[in-house]
Amino acid sequence: MQATQTPKVNVFSAAVIVAALGYFVDIYDLILFSIVRVQSLKDLGITDQAEVTNQGLFLINMQMGGMLLGGILWGILGDKRGRLSVLFGSILLYSLANLANGFVTSVEQYAWLRLIAGIGLAGELGAGITLVSESLPKEKRGYGTMVVATVGVSGAMLAYWVGEKLGWRNAYFVGGGLGLALLLLRVSVFESGMFQQVQAQTEVVRGNFLSLFTNSARFGKYLRILLIGVPLWFVVGILVTLAPEFGRELGLTGEVTAGLAVFWCYFGLVFGDFLSGALSQLWRSRNKALLVFLAFCAVMVGVYLFAIQGATPNVFYGVCFVLGMSVGFWALFVTVAAEQFGTNLRATVATTAPNFARGSVVLLVPAFKFLSAQFGFVPGAAILGGVSLLIAFWAVSTLPESYGKDLDYVE
User: Fold this and answer.
1) Is residue 87 part of a domain?
2) What is the residue-wise DSSP string for 133-148?
3) 402 within some domain
4) Res. 60: pLDDT tops 70
5) The Major facilitator superfamily (MFS) profile domain covers which part of the protein (predicted)?
């Protein structure tokens, strides 16, 4: 017997609010390490500046590696067991891991807990965007995911404030506590009606991750989706996370901190996510909005690397803010991922795609190290950023438009 479909809901429904708050805590925990990287490593006995950079990159890779694993795990579970199971299961895992992060006494413990936290952090956004996309009417779902992103990315600003005021250990405790508190809202959210209908069809194979690679057209779409998200993580994972190092290379008149760079970048992301989501609705085109923001990003990467040599820290932070606006297409990118595939693979794609894009930092870091060694710190970053942006332009230009697409179908 086919399950009864849940009624369509409005933009400020419980599903949208919980997904937005979940993403808020997700971003808080995801970005927190970038903010407390230097402080926490020095407290753990790493005092040499070069070693702080190297160990910081190692821990980022552990977290992002966890997100690669978690993206596959939660994506498959989202299509097999349901969107809600992943939404709240991932919140529970990363909350417990972040509470444990507050007790670490060595880099080795820190690394393993960042791996576990990364696995947990991998599930929330994809499950939330999938649930919202399937719950809202097709002409409104872009506004719903816009709300999720705008509220969610502001979690980075809270992470900066807490990290600065309460210290890095307490900052992890706060993040874990916020996530556990969010679990209380589970009772107010209902499962996606589209998923329930497909779940009742026993002949439909759900969550088959390998099927993304066995069909050339399907694989082509999936690959292009992944490539769209790489420039954002080049900006966040390289340019902003390594802000102190870039500040020294650019000859700024004062020292800059990664925490403030992340704060201003994500403050910009709040406006960028709102604007990109709104434009995709007003223009009735996801692809047009994505292309405009990629062009904006290319300009701002050039400004960051070549136009502010010898500037003041305040000018640098201002550039980080506008740079953040330029990559404020994250939720739009995940929305496009969800809209490109059927209900039996939607959670798998919407969860793996952002985490593979985030996990691209694992490849971006060694690529940046190689290029910076060959050409210099700033030219190496320019080459890497330019390549990632050109590939993203190609990916968007060749991807089918998904605005207004009916999502009630299976692959």
Assistant:
1) yes
2) HHHS-TTTHHHHHHHH
3) no
4) yes
5) 15-403
CATH number (domain holding residue 97): 1.20.1250.20
In a domain, 234, yes or no: yes
Average pLDDT value for residue range 149-162: 87
**Contact criterion met (CB below 8 Å) for 64 and 197:** no
Helices (H) and strands (E) in the chain, counts: 19, 0
Q: Please report the pLDDT score of residue 323 as a whole number.
A: 97
**In contact, 346 and 79? CB cutoff 8 Å:** yes
| Per-residue pLDDT band at 310 (split at 50, 70, 90) | very high
User: 229 and 333 in contact (C-beta within 8 Å)?
Assistant: yes
Range of the structural domain that residue 33 is part of: 14-397
In Å, the largest CA–CA distance within the chain is 69
Beta carbons of 145 and 332 less than 8 angstroms apart: yes
Eight-state DSSP code of residue 45: T
Short-list 357, 354, 279, 335, CA closest to 131? 335
Domain count, the chain: 1
110 located within any domain:
yes
Are 30 and 225 a contacting pair, CB within 8 Å? no
Please give the structure tokens belonging to residue 354. 């952002």
